[in-house]
Q: What sequence folds into this?
């Protein structure tokens, strides 16, 4: 029996838009987010956070706070350090990466505005906040290192003197012969300096944890709004002096994550430690204002880049110099060097270059720490790469679609290793671009654009091809020493009533993980999808796994579920074979019934099989195995990552009087291999696209020269809202990975990866007749009017 | 992010309001629609010891028209303002402004009196009051006094209201049939405008009231004169001498000055087409 | 200081003694255990706490619970039980117009309010109608589709 059969089985749900089993609950307001939970004797914590970007803590007077109504405990950094050990966010394979020990509460010194300094525990959050206002900290302001451009300059204060300088990480990679390409007299060199704005994720449900340490058992249970419960189990155990087995992390409904909720946050660690100190449940639910300065930020990059192109349109080389500021600490345990490292890896990714040179410089600064956020590095690399491609096209007078046709890696070149060292198993750049251009009616749109230009209406079309890293193997984190599982598991069980349960180590934050697991399991076992129950997000009841990040849920968690479902079906068939006196190979399970494989004739409902096995095992042969439960794990082994690809397009109008951009339409064609649930995949793409559009046009964490966040509320940090966002057309090309039976690759980050580049190119297309260009995101009216010379 | 503790009382008559203002002074805040105040309380940007809820004061409600004068009670909600036939007839500029104010949920509670008393320089209604040459009725124990909108906004978030007064109503001479337009440029639906313009024809003249360009809503008399004379370019040029916009997250002063000129051109087209 | 407050929530008379500083959405969540309404920003921007009070949509974080004295309040729980928003809910599920679900109760209130005023809105009108409700997951397109679908139903 071929393993692939599970995808093509008669009652397979692969490729069907089955509604999510949890959606009905959520539309009825019956979600269970952390802040919805209440436990006996539960108390609340609020944090005094540093008002300064960099300051020494001279003294803390918490006497008034301690006697305030409702206050249970006030804890400083020094007291916290006795319970919770500090951490250092480095990975061994990122050579030279350094960082300083970070504490749950600042000890002696605060290094960014918003760093937690004192914890106040009280009966209610309001009382805790009241008492925070009574804590008096004597600060000695220290010079702040704010601007990443000068972080390494002489005279700039070194944030961690023991590290010697503010350089966290640097990596340079050279592939092929970039110098020769740039020196080629027949080539044109184009260049630009790109800026991507510092963003943050703004999960509508703020970060939250309810930590419940039971001293009688010596066990910590953490109800956590998080993407990686097993990773957190390990982290809590390690830093609170517990055994991993004595820590349980439960992630019920998570109100958005996008990479924000996969990091170790000092306030969350402090909450767990407070529960251990107090021996009672402590809840921390970050409010929006503290979230803006304490959730990780991302994408604060300046990239100077150039490309060489021959006069007949062959892009021969790219050279990238990336600089990024990551705040005062590399975030634990994934580190803050990965984003810059990804820029080095991913630039030029869709193209067949002869020379590639890239460098990233990652510096410390006194701002909120940055770390991995949806599509880590991809929107940066794609913006730079596709910006250069359009500049190259313009320089030689070639259509942007045509230059991509000439330079994208051919669809039959795989397997292929590019000059950045990335191994591609199978991509479909040309198929995606062809489909995209047809879907958007590229030629028709160009004609419309040109006709409107004659009337003074400036519309632009922007294209962007991209690659996306998915299904990471241990080469992403494990190899660097982090206990972040690249493997994931699924346990699939048949219960007496013929229903099936699946428990998986990958987690649900709304992507549809549970629907995907149910679909795969239902098809593999052979039952109606409505008979499958899914459990995720509980370290006690699910197989150890990595959780959901880096677009790994379907590709890794889904494959484990498929293998476990197949194994359960085999168990069922062996037992059914004995009961029916038939060869297991002659039977199958379809629609919850054991059938004759050849004719489909129904032989035995699963509930009858369940009844016999569980309650009348005495009637079965003595040596017959009775297991109706199977666990399988899966780790990608052939490739470090399963790369996917796609192409996006933006059509927009620039009001050249006001600099306002109106998005008219957006298209995305992507290839995530096997599509398990088309509707869910499409919505991943659309949501991701809008996250990219937000960054391109609106979102920006702006700091004052003193290191104060100026966009600290949702009135100033402009999120994409429905009124300004376009309809988004989505289509797919399917190139399944051969590494797994399922063939699924990730789709969660593709939208975000390509959208900003498409918008940048569309704006510059619109502005081209006026001789203006913009490369600094967000593309605000002020920046566009400046480029137009109007202000 | 919970408010600091405060006491709360409800008033149903103006006399009760005056009692509280006299007893508590600055420590008390009047709660009307609350759409700015409660956000400020949540953020602990405001921490009054007493919040006096005036939503039950009947004297502050209602829209009436008599003797050529439209009177809008201070507690008139934005949504009511946008739907009121008398407002649509006699002060259509206000009706035009309403859809630009935040979002439906805010408009169902936010009030015109609250908006004027807050005096946010980026808000629509203070500028509309200026363009309409509205008169604000300020009530105190001693009776009512009337202050022209032009005199009501002395500085950033400042008003002519004394500590013992409450804004009771807005009076506007009927502008029925006179052309008007509200133009604004906001990054997203419902956002405060980067620059906004409330323009109201009055006889042969025009009133140009700007929001988002300075510490208060403000008028530009030289631009008005040029505009009224049909010289739109001259009016646009005059703005450089009359507007001194701040630099902020949206961009440099030049951004707002430029956008103001653009809006003026658009207002001219809109008024022409009226 | 605590005050007595009596109101009707989801058709049920309720009374409680509360601090005046408690905003309506916290009251519903913490005192009445109606956790379907969510606090997303507590400064009136995100729309997650949208509720129906006396027939109108309000921000639950911009109204104090004591202000709801005598009011009639509807939350997603009550709107679900009465079937008042069933067509929208069905359309949201069928179209996958929600992902994490945190914005959904508020989004449904905004959608229901829109459809009450404008039973057959265009896509642009739908986008304007929900423009005060932040959703980070979906990109809005599916929500617009679902509201369109519910309006047709």
A:
């Amino acid at each position: 029996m071929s393993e692939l059969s599970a995808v093509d089985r008669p009652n397979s749900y692969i490729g069907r838009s089955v509604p999510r089993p949890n959606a009905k609950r959520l539309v009825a307001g019956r979600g269970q987010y952390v802040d919805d939970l209440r436990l006996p004797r539960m108390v609340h914590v609020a944090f005094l956070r540093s008002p300064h970007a960099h300051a020494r803590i001279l003294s803390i007077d918490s006497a008034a706070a301690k006697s305030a109504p409702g206050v249970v405990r006030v804890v400083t950094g020094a007291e916290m350090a006795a319970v919770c050990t500090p951490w250092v966010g480095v990975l061994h394979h990122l050579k030279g990466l350094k960082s300083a020990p970070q504490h749950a509460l600042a000890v002696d010194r605060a290094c960014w505005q918003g760093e937690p300094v004192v914890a106040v525990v009280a009966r209610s959050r309001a009382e805790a906040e009241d008492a925070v206002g009574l804590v008096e900290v004597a600060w000695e302001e220290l010079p702040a290192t704010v601007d990443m451009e000068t972080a390494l300059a002489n005279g700039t204060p070194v944030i961690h003197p023991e590290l010697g300088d503010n350089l966290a990480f640097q990596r340079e990679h050279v592939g092929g012969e970039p110098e020769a390409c740039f020196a080629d007299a027949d080539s044109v060199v184009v260049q630009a300096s790109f800026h991507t704005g510092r963003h943050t994720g703004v999960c509508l449900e703020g970060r939250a944890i309810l930590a419940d340490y039971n001293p009688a058992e010596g066990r910590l249970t953490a109800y956590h709004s998080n993407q990686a419960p097993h990773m957190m189990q390990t982290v809590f155990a390690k830093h609170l002096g517990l055994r991993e087995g004595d820590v349980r992390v439960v992630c019920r409904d998570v109100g958005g994550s996008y990479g924000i909720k996969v990091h170790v946050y000092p306030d969350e660690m402090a909450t767990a430690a407070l529960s251990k100190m107090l021996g009672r449940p402590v809840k921390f639910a970050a409010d929006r204002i503290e979230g803006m300065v304490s959730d990780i930020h991302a994408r604060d990059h300046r990239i100077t880049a150039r490309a060489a192109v021959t006069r007949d349109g062959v892009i021969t080389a790219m050279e990238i110099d990336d600089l990024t500021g990551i705040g005062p600490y590399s975030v634990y345990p994934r580190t803050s060097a990965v984003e810059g490292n990804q820029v080095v890896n991913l630039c030029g990714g869709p193209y067949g270059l002869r020379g590639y040179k890239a460098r990233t410089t990652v510096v410390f600064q006194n701002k909120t720490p940055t770390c991995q956020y949806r599509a880590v590095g991809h929107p940066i690399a794609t913006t730079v790469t596709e910006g250069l491609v359009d500049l190259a096209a313009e320089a030689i007078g070639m259509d942007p679609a045509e230059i991509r046709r000439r330079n994208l890696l051919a669809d039959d070149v795989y397997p292929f290793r590019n000059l950045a060292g990335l191994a591609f198993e199978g991509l479909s750049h040309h198929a995606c671009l062809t489909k995209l251009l047809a879907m958007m009616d590229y030629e028709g749109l160009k004609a419309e654009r040109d006709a409107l230009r004659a009337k003074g209406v400036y519309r632009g079309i922007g294209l962007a091809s991209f690659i996306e890293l998915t299904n990471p193997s241990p080469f992403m984190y494990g190899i660097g020493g982090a206990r972040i599982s690249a493997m994931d598991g699924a346990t699939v069980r048949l219960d007496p009533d013929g229903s099936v349960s699946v428990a998986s180590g990958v987690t649900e934050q709304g992507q549809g993980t549970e629907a995907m697991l149910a679909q795969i399991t239902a098809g593999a076992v052979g039952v109606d999808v409505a008979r499958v129950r899914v459990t995720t997000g509980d370290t006690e009841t699910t197989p150890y796994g990595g959780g959901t990040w880096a677009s790994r849920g379907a590709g890794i968690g889904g494959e484990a579920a498929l293998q476990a479902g197949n194994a359960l079906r085999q168990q069922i068939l062996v037992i059914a074979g004995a009961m029916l006196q038939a060869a297991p190979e002659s039977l199958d399970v379809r629609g919850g019934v054991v059938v004759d494989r050849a004719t489909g004739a129904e032989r035995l409902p699963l509930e009858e099989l369940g009844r016999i096995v569980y309650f009348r095992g005495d009637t079965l042969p003595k040596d017959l195995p009775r297991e109706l439960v199977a666990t399988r794990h899966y780790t990608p082994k052939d490739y470090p990552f399963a790369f996917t690809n796609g192409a996006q397009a933006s059509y927009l109008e620039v009001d050249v009087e006001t600099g306002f951009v109106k998005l008219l339409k957006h298209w995305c064609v992507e290839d995530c291999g096997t599509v398990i649930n088309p509707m869910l995949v499409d919505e991943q793409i659309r949501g991701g696209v809008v996250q990219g559009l937000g960054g391109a046009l609106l979102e920006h964490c702006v700091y004052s020269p003193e290191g104060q966040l100026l966009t600290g509320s949702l009135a100033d940090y402009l999120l994409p809202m429905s009124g300004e966002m376009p309809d988004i057309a989505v289509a797919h090309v399917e190139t399944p990975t051969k590494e797994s039976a399922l063939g699924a690759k990730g789709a969660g980050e593709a939208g975000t990866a390509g959208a900003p580049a498409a918008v940048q190119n569309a704006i510059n297309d619109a502005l081209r007749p006026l001789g203006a260009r913009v490369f600094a995101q967000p593309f605000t009216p002020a920046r566009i009017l400046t480029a137009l010379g109007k202000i | 992010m919970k408010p600091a503790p405060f006491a709360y009382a409800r008033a149903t008559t103006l006399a009760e309001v005056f009692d509280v203002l006299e007893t508590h002074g600055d420590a008390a805040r009047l709660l009307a629609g609350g759409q700015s105040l409660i956000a400020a309380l949540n953020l602990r940007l405001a921490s009054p010891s007493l919040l006096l809820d005036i939503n039950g004061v009947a004297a502050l409600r209602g829209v009436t028209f008599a003797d050529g004068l439209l009177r809008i009670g201070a507690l008139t909600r934005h949504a009511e303002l946008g739907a009121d036939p008398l407002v649509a007839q006699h002060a259509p500029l206000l009706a035009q402004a309403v859809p630009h104010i935040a979002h439906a949920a805010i408009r169902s509670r936010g009030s015109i009196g609250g908006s004027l008393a807050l005096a946010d320089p980026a808000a629509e209604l203070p500028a509309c009051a200026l363009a309409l040459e509205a008169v604000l009725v300020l009530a105190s124990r001693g009776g009512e006094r009337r202050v022209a909108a032009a005199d009501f906004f002395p500085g950033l978030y400042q008003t002519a209201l004394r500590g013992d007064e409450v804004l009771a109503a807005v009076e506007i001479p009927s502008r029925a049939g006179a052309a008007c337009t509200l133009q604004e440029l906001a990054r997203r639906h419902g956002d405060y405008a980067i620059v906004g313009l409330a323009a109201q024809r009055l006889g042969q003249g025009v009133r140009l009231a700007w929001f988002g360009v300075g510490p208060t809503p403000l008028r530009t008399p030289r631009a008005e004169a040029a505009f009224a004379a049909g010289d739109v370019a001259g009016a646009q040029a005059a703005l450089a001498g009359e507007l001194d916009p701040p630099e902020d997250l949206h961009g440099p002063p030049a951004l707002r000055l430029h956008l103001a000129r653009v809006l003026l051109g658009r207002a001219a087209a809109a008024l022409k087409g009226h | 200081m605590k005050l007595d407050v009596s109101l009707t929530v989801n058709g049920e008379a309720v009374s409680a003694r509360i601090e005046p500083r408690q905003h309506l959405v916290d009251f519903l969540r913490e005192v009445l255990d109606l956790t379907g309404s969510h606090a997303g920003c507590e400064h009136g921007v995100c729309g997650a706490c949208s509720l129906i009070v006396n027939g109108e949509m309000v921000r639950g974080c911009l109204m104090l619970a004591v202000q709801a004295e005598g009011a009639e309040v509807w939350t997603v729980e009550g709107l679900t039980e009465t079937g008042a928003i069933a067509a929208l809910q069905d359309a949201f599920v069928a179209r996958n117009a929600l992902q994490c679900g945190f914005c959904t109760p508020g989004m449904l209130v905004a959608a229901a309010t829109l459809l009450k005023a404008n039973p057959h809105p265009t896509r642009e009108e739908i986008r304007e109608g929900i423009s005060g409700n932040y959703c980070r997951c979906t990109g809005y397109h599916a929500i617009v589709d679902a509201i369109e679908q519910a309006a047709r139903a």
Remarks:
- The two ends of chain A are 70 Å apart (CA to CA).
- The mean pLDDT of chain A is 97.
- Chain A touches chain B at residues 124-126, 129-130, 133, 287-290, 657-658, 660, 698, 702, 710-711, 713, 715-716, 718, 721, 723-724, 780-782, 785, 790-791 (CB under 8 Å).
- The longest helix of chain A spans residues 553-580.
